[in-house]
Structures are given as structure tokens and as C-alpha cells.
Amino acid sequence: MERRPRSFYILAAFFALFVLFLYGPILTIGILSFQGPQGGLTFPMNGVSLHWFRDLFQEQAVGDIWGAFRRSFALGLMVMVTTVVVSVMAGLAFRKRFAGSALLFYAAITSLVIPSILISLGVGLIFNQLGLKIHWATSGFGSQLTWTLPFGLLIMFAVFNRFDKSYEEAARDQGATSWQTIRFVVLPIIAPSLIGVALFGFTLSYDEFARTLLTAGSYNTLPLEIFGMTTNVTTPVIYALGTLTTLFSFAIIAACLLGVWILGKRRARLGSDAGKGV
Predict the structure, then answer these.
(1) By C-alpha distance, which of 32, 99, 91, 20 is closest to 240?
(2) Per-residue DSSP letters for 206-227?
(3) Of 151, 214, 234, 246, which one has the fewest beta carbons inside 10 Å?
(4) Could you give phi then psi for residue 236, rounded to 5 degrees?
(5) Residue 119 sits in which domain range?
(6) CA–CA dist 116, 212 (Å, integer)
(7) 101 neighbors 112 (Cβ within 8 angstroms)
(8) Per-position DSSP letters for 167-195, written without gaps between them
(9) The dihedral of CA 174, 178, 181, 183: what is its sign?
(10) What is the pLDDT along the chain (278 residues), one digit of tens a residue?
């Protein structure tokens, strides 16, 4: 049996430490959320129960948790749809060189290197100067797009750079219009990538704190609500909330991965049928 080199064990140990560093805090919060009714915020645990999960669904004075969740969910959907639509349109537009395309590209991704809190402050100041009301669905929506759109654009640019144009040429040879080519050829081929862009858009928006801090107005999103709870909540109910929101995020990711898997199976089945002349 061939002996593995020492570097293998070093890399394995490093990867194990990385996973522990990444998921250790989440696991700790998940464990502490099952504290008994008399439990506190630290170890050792005082009993095991679902008390704090039940407490989340009861009237309490810790804040508007479910209202904040609904706002974050709605905002995430808005950002997701906008990010997908704009990214696809930009990806199609940038397939051909045009005057100012390089400048426009760098201007679009510059927001990634600007501190998020400055983006939030700038958007809030612009809305104040224009006499517009600062609200999570307007100013908050705009500030979050400065975070999600660059990622969507970069993904779409990479996808279209590798896209085989012969599929479009074949569709046009068959008499398809430009819109029909995009709808029935281009979009089905890039559908898995669109799911990836949608996942980026939703999760980045759902978890965003800094860019929403000064642009959410009077109503908090979920990250802002959780941050507020850390200053006045001294029970494991905040851990229970963290556990549920983490499970929700994992469920969204799992749903997107399932969508990609289904699309892959469908594409393989259609390719097999086409090969058989069905």
C-alpha cells in the first residue's frame, strides 16, 4: 500500500481547521439554542428543551422578529429578480464591443471595493437631498443592488464568454427570430447559471447588514433586528432565531442545487432523446 506524503496530512489538518473555524460558531449557536427554560447564553447547558424555539412564536418584547423576516424575504426576492434580469441583459449586451464598454464595466464593479458602510451612507444622503423617504424597499433596495449586481454581472460575463454561438446560428438558420433564439435556445442553456445568480442575489441580500444599516428607514430587516437583539436580549431565544435563519438559508441553497440537478437531468434526457432521433 502506497504511503501518503506528509503534505497530504498537513493539508488535511488545515482543511479540518478551516471547516471547524467556518462552522464551529454555527454549531455552537445551534447547540445553545436547545437550552432548558433556565438556560443562559454560555456553556454549560442548563437542561435540554425546545423552549426557546416555542418562545419565538409567542408574543414577546424583543422586537419585530417576524416582521423583519418578511421584509428581508421580500427584499431578497426583489433583489434576486432584478439581479437576474439586469445581469442577463448586460451579459447579452457586452457580447459585442461598444464605445465605453470597458469604462461601464469597471464602473459597475467598483462598488465591490468601496466599504459597504460608505455605500449605505451615500445612498442615504442622496435620498435625503432629493427629499425622498428612506425605506427598505427603495433606498435599501438600491444600496443592496450595488452589492449583488456586480456578482451577477461577473457570472454572466464568464458564462457568455464560453457560450457556443453555433447554437444561435443553428436556430436562426431554422428561421427563429432574435427573441425566439434567446427564449428557446440561450436561456435554457444558461438556466443553471441563472439559478446561481439568483442564489447569489437572494442570499447576499438576505444576509446584508452594512449596506442596509443607514438605508432601511424605520423598519428593520432581519440582520438589523438580530443586531438590535444582541444589545437587549439575554436569553437563548436569539440563538433559536439564529438556528432557524441558518436552516432557512441552507434550505434556499438546497432548493437551488436541486433546481440545477433537475435541469441537468432534463438536459441529459433531451440530449439522449435527440441522439436516438426521438
Answers:
(1) 32
(2) HH--HHHHTTSTTS--HHHHHH
(3) 234
(4) -70, 5
(5) 64-232
(6) 9
(7) no
(8) HHHHHHHTT--HHHHIIIIIHHHHHHHHH
(9) negative
(10) 567 777 888 898 999 999 889 889 889 999 999 988 888 888 888 888 888 888 887 765 556 788 899 999 999 999 999 999 999 999 998 888 888 888 888 888 888 888 999 999 999 999 999 999 999 999 999 999 999 999 999 999 999 988 888 888 888 888 888 889 998 889 988 988 999 899 989 999 998 999 999 999 888 999 998 888 887 777 888 899 889 988 998 898 898 888 888 887 877 776 565 555 54
What's the rounded Cα separation, in Å, for the pair 55 and 60? Answer: 8
Tell me if 136 sits within 8 A of 206, measured CB to CB: no
Q: Which of 67, 215, 81 is nearest to 137 (CA)?
A: 215
206 vs 199: CA distance, rounded Å? 10
Evaluate whether 9 touches 22 at the Cβ level (below 8 Å): no
Grid coordinates 447569489 are at which residue? 200
**Domain harbouring 143, CATH code:** 1.10.3720.10
- Structural domain includes residue 33: no
